[in-house]
Each structure stands twice: as structure tokens, then as C-alpha cells.
Amino acid sequence: MLDLAVDPAIDGALGVPAAMRRRLRTEVARMVRAAARRDHRADYEVSLRLVADPQIHALNRGYRGKDRPTDVLAFAQREAPSTAALHPALPALLGDIVISVDTARRQARRGLYRELLHLASHGLCHLLGYDHRDDAEEAEMNARAAALRAEASRRGRVRAA
Q1: CATH fold group of domain 2-153
Q2: Quick one: pLDDT at residue 92?
Q3: How many other C-beta atoms lie within 10 A of the C-beta of residue 154?
Q4: What pLDDT does residue 10 have?
């Protein structure tokens, strides 16, 4: 289950066309479902929010103590044991992914959409417990993110990734 929220108050300023938001929602939902299938679950619940630099700057300062905008933040809810583990047929709440469209646009080398999907897969990997504190962790996380993106773009029934 994916909740894609774009704040209507800043939607126009973000400049993300509705068709791109719909495609992103569809493909991120496929990534989330693929991650759940790998974990032998029916689905996970993830919130994806597209914001501008001032909003992500405030979050980055408030939660990480870093006084600057960043490209993506992930707020995991999976840290503590939950009753969802006892009910694999129900979606388990993984957490929230927040992406700065402004920063994504500046970083985009192969188009805004690909950058947004890359950042969403990166955030999802953090929600799944991956990190990149050293080269080995980064390689493992990047491989998982790539597998999730590949499954997102594939047609047909979602497979574990």
C-alpha cells in the first residue's frame, strides 16, 4: 500500500506534472510490494511525500541536526517489534520517504523522473534497514535499490526483489 502525498500548497511550485506523479506512485508501489514479497509479506505501507527544499531543510535540521536541504529522508517505523509481524497478510507500516524535488532536479543527470525513482528506492532501502556507512554496505544497498527499480519498471505480476 502506498500513500503518495504532494502538498497542494506547493504543488505548483514543485513543477512535477500529474502524469509523472501517477507513474511514480505506480512504480514506487511496485517496489514496496516487491520488497514485501521478498520478506514473505502481502504488502508494506509506505508514505511518499514530495516537497521543496525549505520543507526538507527544516526536517533535516530538526531530525538530523544538519542545517541544509538534502535529497531524501527516510523515517522508519520498523525499528521496534510490531504486531504486524504476527499478521503477515496485513500491510506492515515501514515508514515515510520525503524527497526534495528541488534537490532532485539539481542532481538529475538522466531526467527528473529517473532521479525521483532513484531517491525513492534509496529511501525505501533505508526503511528496509539498509545503510551506507562503508563501501560494503553501500554496495549491498545499491544492489537492492537497483533490483527494486528493475522490478518497478517491469510489467506483469510483481515478484520479490
Answers
A1: Collagenase (Catalytic Domain) (3.40.390)
A2: 82
A3: 14
A4: 40
